[in-house]
Amino acid sequence: MLSARRQIQTTEDVSIRLNSGLLDFGLFIGNTNLDKYDYIKLPVYDIWGLLMRKDDPLAQKKTIKPQDLENITLLCSRQALENNELSGWLGKDFKTLNIHSTHNLLYNESLMVEEGIGCALSIDGLVNTAERNLTFRPFEPEMKADLVFAWKKYQVFSKAAELFLNYLQKML
User: Fold this and answer.
1) How many other CB atoms sit within 10 Å of the CB of residue 67?
2) Which of 12, 92, 132, 147 could bond to 42 as cystine, CB 3.0-4.6 Å?
3) Quick check: 17 pLDDT over 50?
4) What is the distance between the alpha carbons of residues 35 and 52, in angstroms, rounded to a whole number?
5) Three-state SS sequence of 32-88
6) Coil, strand or helix: which one is 13?
7) Closest of 23, 20, 8 to residue 151, by C-alpha
């Protein structure tokens, strides 16, 4: 169960909790090995882009292109770096970029972005930019991250979890 504060977990965190029975269901974002799970690919997706200060020169652009990431300091999720998720979009190995730090929690990186340490590669909507000196610009061409609702194969569910899954399957 989520606390009042929004908790964002990595793929590894969700997998561990699903495999140990601490969670009935998990939501995976982006490239994920789903061999151990039954799942439903949701009919929505997230968009990758760049989180930056509002006064950053790139904030004047409507979209961010691969060449815009050359020669700037970047902060990146550990998962995206390990999975090399953006290499196809970049047209080269993701690790050739100037990656200053990696993270599991984007909120911590957003504080570093506000302090001018660099720009964060991110999925839109993970950080509230409305009341902060931050802005988000999507990548061009658009880079999508699939959303997958998953559960452990051969899982025996509680009645409530079973009802929820049946409802979700009917809705989708």
Assistant:
1) 9
2) 147
3) yes
4) 36
5) CCCCCEEEEEEEEEEEEEEEEECCCHHHHCCCECHHHHCCCCEEEEHHHHHHCCCHH
6) helix
7) 23
Name the token pair of 22: 């601490």
DSSP 3-state of 105: coil
Measured at the CA of 45, the angle between CA 155 and CA 102, to 5 degrees, comes to: 85
Count CB-CB contacts under 10 A for residue 45.
Answer: 16
Distance of CA 15 to the CA centre of its chain: 15
Look at residue 12 in the predicted model and tell me its pLDDT. Answer: 79
What pLDDT sits at residue 14?
87
Instruction: Kindly report the backbone phi and psi dihedral angles of residue 13, in degrees, each rounded to the nearest multiple of 5, phi listed first.
Output: -60, -45
Best CA proximity match to 105, nearest among 21, 30, 6, 3 = 6
Between the CA of residue 110 and those of 25, 99, 136, what are the distances in Å? Answer: 28, 15, 11
